[in-house]
């Protein structure tokens, strides 16, 4: 219904024939121990939030409106029943979903996670409320969009895919009902909401488990040999629906849909295709290429003339995702860097799981530190086009202790989303770390103590004092 925030897996309904719910890896596997899912204690959800009306229902749980008691702000709470987590794989899926939401947080078109909580019966994921309803509802109401509107929406959807891939995440269940509008009056306030089937991947890794939703699944997924290219196929299916109101591959049965996907014949003869531009059809054909190696990448889709905003090709993904954060980090003064390092050390495991995976991929010799050559090779694997001089600048910016390498905590700190830095509880924790006597001010002596704890040289302290304040102390403001 309008304003709903569906959870886990819901049935697709883009055409007269309704497919089965999304395929999951559930079923066979070791039975789950119904102890802790998150692996660490959390506050009680009901001490912090009041649960309201039900917003949506999925295979594994229910989403409710919830209100933060301290602020009165509304959020969505996805409550996953632990009884339904039958196997260890089910539990891993829930953990991974939370890790991936943290990993992608800060992207304007990804729903923001507020926190995860666990009690005896449920795991609760509290996230940004998207009150504008499903993108799918808009497609059904309108029949189809204008090409310009479809191009704007496709740019957002493929932008999310590009961000996922550049951060080592494959979505695996893109579909219109997994995109909600934050604001019902703004079609461009689109947010990706469901990462229940998403996985971390390494460049070149092959996946074999068949997951996704029938209308949207790529042929190579059905053949059990696929990688991130499958997300581009799925986005191509969404684009076809955005322009026509029906999926390109459909039948009365799930097997019939799969047969149509494997045949790969795209109908450009029925209405409204005769009046749709050749450029749009060219893009769809390239996104629905049955050979993954020849299919456009997410970045190439965004560079296609039909998608381009006023003909200007966007930056490559990593340059705007991880690397923009490192560049912004390098512009911070040294005190902020040190505060960020303290925050990085206090973050929970699931908040940094994605960055940890990326660090381990780049740290080729498993030394616990990334050299210039490893950073250069790692960025190349993730599709970066940065020049050597820019990589050297990034290295210098992230190497807080001037050791010539980037250690794990430096990497996490340098690539952290700025929205995490700005979260008040993290800032208060960082300030308290420096303010040893709790006076509300940080003195030179306290800074000196912090520098010693982090093995920073005296010259570093002099720089911090010069940049920070004139009266030799810093207030919390």
Q: Can you tell me about this structure?
A:
Helix 6 runs antiparallel to helix 8 (278-287). The chain is an alpha+beta fold and 477 residues long. The chain is globular, with a radius of gyration of 24 Å. The chain has two domains: 135-318, Transferase(Phosphotransferase), domain 1 (Orthogonal Bundle); 320-475, EF-hand (Recoverin, domain 1, Orthogonal Bundle), CATH 1.10.238.10. It has 20 helices and 13 strands. The strands form five sheets. A five-stranded antiparallel sheet has the order 1-2-3-5-4. A two-stranded antiparallel ribbon has the order 6-9. A two-stranded antiparallel sheet has the order 7-8.
Q: Which secondary structure elements does this structure contain, and how are they paired or packed?
A:
Blueprint: H1 45-48, E1 49-57, E2 61-68, E3 74-81, H2 88-104, E4 113-118, E5 122-128, H3 135-142, H4 147-166, E6 169-170, E7 179-181, E8 190-192, E9 199-200, H5 219-222, H6 229-244, H7 254-263, H8 278-287, H9 298-303, H10 317-320, H11 322-331, H12 334-346, H13 349-362, E10 369-370, H14 372-381, H15 388-398, E11 406-407, H16 408-415, H17 418-422, H18 424-434, E12 441-443, H19 444-453, H20 458-468, E13 473-475
Antiparallel strand pairs: 1-2, 2-3, 3-5, 4-5, 6-9, 7-8, 10-11, 12-13
Helix pairs in contact: 2-13, 4-6, 6-8, 11-15, 12-16, 12-18, 13-16, 19-20
């Amino acid at each position: 219904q309008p304003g709903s925030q569906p959870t886990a897996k819901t049935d697709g309904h883009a055409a007269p024939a309704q497919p089965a719910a999304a395929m999951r890896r559930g079923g066979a596997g070791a039975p789950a121990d119904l102890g802790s899912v998150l692996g660490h204690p959390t506050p009680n959800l009901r001490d912090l939030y009041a649960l309201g009306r039900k917003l949506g229902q999925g295979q594994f749980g229910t989403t409710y409106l919830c209100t933060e008691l301290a602020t009165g702000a509304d959020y969505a709470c996805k409550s996953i029943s632990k009884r339904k987590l039958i196997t260890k794989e089910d539990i891993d899926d829930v953990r991974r979903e939370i890790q991936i939401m943290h990993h992608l947080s800060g992207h304007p078109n990804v729903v923001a996670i507020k926190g995860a909580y666990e009690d005896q019966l449920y795991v609760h994921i509290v996230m940004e409320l998207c009150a504008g309803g499903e993108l799918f509802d808009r497609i059904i109401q309108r029949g189809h969009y204008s090409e310009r509107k479809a191009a704007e929406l496709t740019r957002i959807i493929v932008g999310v895919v590009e961000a996922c891939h550049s951060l080592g995440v494959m979505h695996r269940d893109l579909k219109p009902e997994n995109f909600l509008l934050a604001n019902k009056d703004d079609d461009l306030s689109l947010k990706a909401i469901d990462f229940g089937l998403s996985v971390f991947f390494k460049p070149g890794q092959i996946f074999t488990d068949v997951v996704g939703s029938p209308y949207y699944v790529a042929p190579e997924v059905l053949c059990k040999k696929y990688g991130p290219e499958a997300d581009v196929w799925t986005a191509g299916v969404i684009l076809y629906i955005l322009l026509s109101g029906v999926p390109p591959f459909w039948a009365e049965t799930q097997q019939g849909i799969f047969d149509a996907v494997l045949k790969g014949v795209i109908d450009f003869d029925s209405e409204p295709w005769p009046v749709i531009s050749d450029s749009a059809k060219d893009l769809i054909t390239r996104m629905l290429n049955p050979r993954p190696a020849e299919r456009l990448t997410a970045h190439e889709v965004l560079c296609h003339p039909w998608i381009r905003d006023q003909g200007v090709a966007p930056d490559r993904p990593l340059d705007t995702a991880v690397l923009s954060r490192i560049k912004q980090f390098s512009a911070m003064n040294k005190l902020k860097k040190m505060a960020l390092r303290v925050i990085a050390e206090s973050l929970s495991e699931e908040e940094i799981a994605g960055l940890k995976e990326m660090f381990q991929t780049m740290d080729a010799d498993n030394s616990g530190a990334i050299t210039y050559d490893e950073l250069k090779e790692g960025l190349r694997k993730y599709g970066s086009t940065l020049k050597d001089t820019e990589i050297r600048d990034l290295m210098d910016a992230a190497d807080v202790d001037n050791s010539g390498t980037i250690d794990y905590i430096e990497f996490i700190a340098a690539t952290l989303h700025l929205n995490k830095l700005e979260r008040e509880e993290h800032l208060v924790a960082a300030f308290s770390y420096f303010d040893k006597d709790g006076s509300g001010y940080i003195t030179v002596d306290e800074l000196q103590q912090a520098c010693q704890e982090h093995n920073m040289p005296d010259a570093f302290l002099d720089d911090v004092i010069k940049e920070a304040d004139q009266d030799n102390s810093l207030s919390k403001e």
